[in-house]
């Protein structure tokens, strides 16, 4: 059972009307929407492949854009956390190191996913007609579905704990919801 009073106290620290917080939410929700819309558009029209001269070049360019957007998202997330109050009761070594451990596990999932899929497998190569020879079932895909999404979510969760940030926790929930919707859309 969820303790609603505790959640209300926790999120009482968050100003959801703060411009930085709103920009972070928009950045978080924009990213998966963008790459899914662009990838499906490419699959239907092959427009990017024609513009860039080949599917591989187009996929690499989209991948570069996605990486830049992810850097912007992380920056907005961090700035939103910094502009909001910390939860003083969490500003201890154990919270920091717990967050560090969660971020490390998330980083393991993200990096191992990338290594298993390669650049074009990670950045929607299948929508460009760049198919892998077989489905990847090795680690981390043997442990959970969509390990890059959940690894990224874990990184944000850990980052939020490391900074004792209620705003970060709420933004992490937005990340998780955005990825859940993306998984449903992609599936």
UniProtKB/TrEMBL annotation:
<comment type="pathway">
    <text>Lipid metabolism.</text>
</comment>
<keyword id="KW-0808">Transferase</keyword>
<keyword id="KW-0256">Endoplasmic reticulum</keyword>
<comment type="pathway">
    <text>Phospholipid metabolism; phosphatidylcholine biosynthesis.</text>
</comment>
<feature type="transmembrane region" description="Helical">
    <location>
        <begin position="95"/>
        <end position="124"/>
    </location>
</feature>
<keyword id="KW-1208">Phospholipid metabolism</keyword>
<feature type="transmembrane region" description="Helical">
    <location>
        <begin position="20"/>
        <end position="37"/>
    </location>
</feature>
<protein>
    <recommendedName>
        <fullName>Phosphatidylethanolamine N-methyltransferase</fullName>
        <ecNumber>2.1.1.17</ecNumber>
        <ecNumber>2.1.1.71</ecNumber>
    </recommendedName>
</protein>
<feature type="transmembrane region" description="Helical">
    <location>
        <begin position="165"/>
        <end position="185"/>
    </location>
</feature>
<keyword id="KW-0444">Lipid biosynthesis</keyword>
<keyword id="KW-1133">Transmembrane helix</keyword>
<keyword id="KW-0443">Lipid metabolism</keyword>
<keyword id="KW-0812">Transmembrane</keyword>
<dbReference type="InterPro" id="IPR024960">
    <property type="entry name" value="PEMT/MFAP"/>
</dbReference>
<keyword id="KW-0949">S-adenosyl-L-methionine</keyword>
<keyword id="KW-0594">Phospholipid biosynthesis</keyword>
<dbReference type="GO" id="GO:0000773">
    <property type="term" value="F:phosphatidyl-N-methylethanolamine N-methyltransferase activity"/>
</dbReference>
<keyword id="KW-0472">Membrane</keyword>
<dbReference type="GO" id="GO:0005789">
    <property type="term" value="C:endoplasmic reticulum membrane"/>
</dbReference>
<dbReference type="GO" id="GO:0006656">
    <property type="term" value="P:phosphatidylcholine biosynthetic process"/>
</dbReference>
<dbReference type="GO" id="GO:0004608">
    <property type="term" value="F:phosphatidylethanolamine N-methyltransferase activity"/>
</dbReference>
<keyword id="KW-0496">Mitochondrion</keyword>
<keyword id="KW-0489">Methyltransferase</keyword>
<dbReference type="Pfam" id="PF04191">
    <property type="entry name" value="PEMT"/>
</dbReference>
<dbReference type="InterPro" id="IPR007318">
    <property type="entry name" value="Phopholipid_MeTrfase"/>
</dbReference>
<dbReference type="GO" id="GO:0032259">
    <property type="term" value="P:methylation"/>
</dbReference>
């Amino acid at each position: 059972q969820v303790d609603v009073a505790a959640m209300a106290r926790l999120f009482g620290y968050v100003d959801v009307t703060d411009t930085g917080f709103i920009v972070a939410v928009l950045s978080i929700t924009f990213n998966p929407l963008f790459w899914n819309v662009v990838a499906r558009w490419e699959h239907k029209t092959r427009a990017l492949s024609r513009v860039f001269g080949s599917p591989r070049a187009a996929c690499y360019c989209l991948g570069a854009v996605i990486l830049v957007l992810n850097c912007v998202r992380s920056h907005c997330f961090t700035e939103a956390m910094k502009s909001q109050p910390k939860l003083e009761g969490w500003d201890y070594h154990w919270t920091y190191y717990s967050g560090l451990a969660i971020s490390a596990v998330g980083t393991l999932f993200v990096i191992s996913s990338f290594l298993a899929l390669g650049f074009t497998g990670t950045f929607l190569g299948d929508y460009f007609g760049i198919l892998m020879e077989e489905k990847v079932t090795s680690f981390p895909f043997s442990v959970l579905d969509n390990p890059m999404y959940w690894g990224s979510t874990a990184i944000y969760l850990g980052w939020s704990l490391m900074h004792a940030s209620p705003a970060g926790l709420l933004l992490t929930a937005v990340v998780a919801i955005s990825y859940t919707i993306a998984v449903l859309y992609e599936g």
